């Protein structure tokens, strides 16, 4: 297979793994600890994608101090239980193995804290496919998707951004990629609302792992 790109960055939540159960369970736990009303689960689904700091402020109307406490409570449960309430999407392992065999150099670029991301990938045996796993810092560093993507590219040594592409399931992946100077392919099996990926400018939307593999290797036209 001919390579369309040399470097591929993958989002984690909603792209490589279905992490909805753990994220929503931990959000409910945090709100309960804060003494706040817990919305219906469907109303919490907008949390699936953006950084926690953004959702605790915008979704729950918390001030900075309350939001920081909410994130601490969230991570209290997530670090021991929530990160493994999770599973890889069907076909991910085979696709990554095929892409690595095709010579693509791959990394993960996620808004999830880097230590948690590494543990999840190791748990499911996916870490062997990636040269770097880049996430936000528990200290608040790399707090935007664009910053995470830029750091992942730096770690990969990808100086020519035209040879790199982002793969993600939400508008935040597309916007972050654009800000960092990359194109983005969307995946339809994640957490996006209908039409979201097209609206924000994904150059293509893959409906399956085999579809994504063909897009990334050039076997299928964009």
Strand order of the largest sheet: 5-4-1-6-7-8
Radius of gyration, CA atoms, in whole angstroms: 17 Å
CATH fold name of the largest domain:
Rossmann fold
Per DSSP, the total helix count is: 10
Helix content: 40-55%
CATH class category label of the largest domain: Alpha Beta
Beta percentage is: 15-25%
Query: CATH-wise, what's the superfamily of the largest domain?
Result: HAD superfamily/HAD-like
Verbal overview:
It contains 10 helices and 8 strands. Strand 7, helix 9 (196-200) and strand 8 (204-206) form a beta-alpha-beta unit. It has helices spanning 20-34, 41-44, 52-58, 64-78, 92-101, 114-123, 145-156, 171-180, 196-200, 209-217, and strands at residues 7-10, 17-18, 87-88, 105-113, 132-136, 164-168, 183-187, 204-206. The strands form 2 sheets. The protein has a 6-stranded parallel β-sheet, sandwiched between helices. A two-stranded antiparallel sheet has the order 2-3. With 222 residues, the protein is of the alpha/beta class.
């Amino acid at each position: 297979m001919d390579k369309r790109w040399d470097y591929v960055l993958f989002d984690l939540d909603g792209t490589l793994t279905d992490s909805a159960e753990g994220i929503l369970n931990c959000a409910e736990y945090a709100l309960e600890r804060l003494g706040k009303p817990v919305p219906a689960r469907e109303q919490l689904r907008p949390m699936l994608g953006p950084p926690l700091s953004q959702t605790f402020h915008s979704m729950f109307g918390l001030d900075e101090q309350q939001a920081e406490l909410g994130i601490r409570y969230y991570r209290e449960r997530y670090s021991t239980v929530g990160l493994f309430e999770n599973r890889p999407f069907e076909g991910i392992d085979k696709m990554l193995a095929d892409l690595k065999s095709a010579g693509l150099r791959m990394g993960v670029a996620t808004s999830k804290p880097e230590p948690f991301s590494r543990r999840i990938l190791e748990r499911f045996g996916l870490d062997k496919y990636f040269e770097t796993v880049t996430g936000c810092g528990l200290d608040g560093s790399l707090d935007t998707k664009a910053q995470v993507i830029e750091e992942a590219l730096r770690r990969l040594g990808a100086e020519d951004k035209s040879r790199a592409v982002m793969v993600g399931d939400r508008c935040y992946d597309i916007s972050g990629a654009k800000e960092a100077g990359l194109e983005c392919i969307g995946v339809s099996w994640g957490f996006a609302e209908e039409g979201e990926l097209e609206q924000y400018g994904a150059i293509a939307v893959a409906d399956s792992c085999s579809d994504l593999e063909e897009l990334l290797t050039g076997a299928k036209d964009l």
